[in-house]
Amino acid sequence: MELRPLGIDGVIEIIPKKFGDARGYFAETYARADFQAAGISQDWVQDNQSFSMENGVLRGLHFQVAPFVQDKLIRVLRGSIFDVAVDIRRGSPTFGRWVSCTISASAFNQLLVPKGFAHGFVTLQAETEVFYKVSAPYSSDCDRSIFYADPAIGIAWPLPTSGANLSDKDRNAPMLSDIIADISFD
């Protein structure tokens, strides 16, 4: 497995080894011992999968607060996404900064988004399937979001966001400055 830190502490692109022949391929996309040997020790408790019919579906920026804060390990089963992690850890030297990674079925890469980050993505192809592990179960009481086009964060989405295909929750999400006092990861 190859690890590529993306410039903000804890956000890592992971490229599993793939073994192929004329029949296809085999890969271990997660092996606890390998991840722990690389210093990644999250305890995954739930798997999630999303499917987006169209190119340009934008999901995020999502996170959960205590006591159900989540680490996420994201991969794409079909299609591709532009994936974003925003540091929302109060007191962090990189607070409010974002990093991105294009994740695709063809690149066979994954992204580790640790606790304390908001996460979102936009599909780059129609019929994209995203699969991700989380370290805490979903909690509607702890579920939060930040407006995907918050100018204070300034994410450079690769597609025009003015006509983005969004949920009502994401379209009406608050700005980071409006919720910073409510963010708790303890």
What's the short story on this structure?
This protein has a single domain, classed as Sandwich (Jelly Rolls).
What keywords describe this structure?
186 residues; mainly beta; Jelly Rolls; 6-stranded antiparallel beta sheet; 5-stranded antiparallel beta sheet; 8% helix
Specify the overall morphology: globular
Strand fraction equals 35-45%
Q: Given the helix and strand composition, which structural class is it?
A: mainly beta
State the helix count.
3
Assembly type: single chain
Taking the alpha carbons of the first and last residues, their distance comes to 31 Å
CATH structural architecture: Sandwich
Return the CATH topology: Jelly Rolls
Radius of gyration: 16 Å
- Biggest sheet character: 6 strands, antiparallel
Helix content: under 10%
**pLDDT < 50 stretches:** none
Supply the CATH class: Mainly Beta
Tally the structural domains: 1
Overall pLDDT score: 94
Strand order of the largest sheet: 1-2-10-7-12-5
Q: What is the CATH H-level superfamily?
A: Jelly Rolls
Elements, N to C (H/E):
EEEEHEEEEEEEEEHH
Number of strands: 13
Descriptive overview:
This protein is mainly β. The protein has one domain (2-14, 41-182): Jelly Rolls (Sandwich), CATH 2.60.120.10. The chain contains three helices and 13 strands, in the order ββββαβββββββββαα. It has helices at 32-37, 168-171, 176-179, and strands spanning 2-5, 12-15, 18-21, 24-27, 46-52, 58-64, 72-78, 80-87, 98-104, 110-113, 117-123, 128-134, 143-145. The strands form three sheets. The chain has a six-stranded antiparallel beta sheet with strand order 1-2-10-7-12-5, with no helix packed on it. β1 (2-5) and β2 (12-15) form a beta hairpin. The chain is globular and about 55 Å long. The protein starts with a strand and ends in a 7-residue tail after the last helix. 31% of the residues are buried. The model has no long low-confidence stretch (mean pLDDT 94).
